[in-house]
Amino acid sequence: MTPKTRPTHWAPGLVVAAFALLGMVAACGSEDTVTPTPTATPRPTEPTPTATPSCETMVTGRVYDEVSGEDISGAIISAHLSVPRTFQATSGAGGSYSLVLPNPYGCLVDGLEVSADGYHGELLAVTAAALQAEPIRNFALSAVDGR
Question: Ramachandran region of residue 84, left (φ > 0), alpha (ψ -120 to 50) or beta?
Fold first, then answer.
């Protein structure tokens, strides 16, 4: 009996199809060979930004004795707001102070109050718009003992 032998040739169409399939699989996984086709899709319209006023305000000034003109250091300057929030500054050497009211609190100011040991306090009613227009505010305090 003669042993069975395997055929020594393959069907040429099957070999070509197998190599073509392997080439497509390799191309799909490689970014180098696949080039995306640009499409003309409309971009969504973005809302037009509206101008909102900046309400950040920096109030500066000097606190001094109304009779002698001497600077008062250690005076406390407080902003009165229409919401329950407090912003304060303390006058330093030379009586100068700088009070920053961040956005949106600068738009909520309705007054400034100044107090210092040995002096009568002062309350200045001022609108936020007026404070932004004129942020330099000096305060002359009168002594409690009437000097």
Answer: beta
Mean pLDDT of 93-120: 96
Q: List the CATH number of the domain containing 128.
A: 2.60.40.1120
* pLDDT number for residue 119: 97
Let me know the angle formed at the C-alpha of 111 by 109 and 115, rounded to the nearest 5 degrees.
130
Pairing of β 109-115 and β 139-141: unpaired
Residue 117 resides in a domain: yes
Domain that holds residue 105: 57-141
Find the length of the chain: 147
Distance CA 48, CA 45 (A): 9
Query: Considering the entire predicted model, what is its pTM?
Result: 0.63
Question: Can you tell me the mean pLDDT for 31-50?
Answer: 56
Let me know if residue 116 belongs to a domain.
Answer: yes
Closest by CA to 59, choosing from 78, 83, 73, is: 78
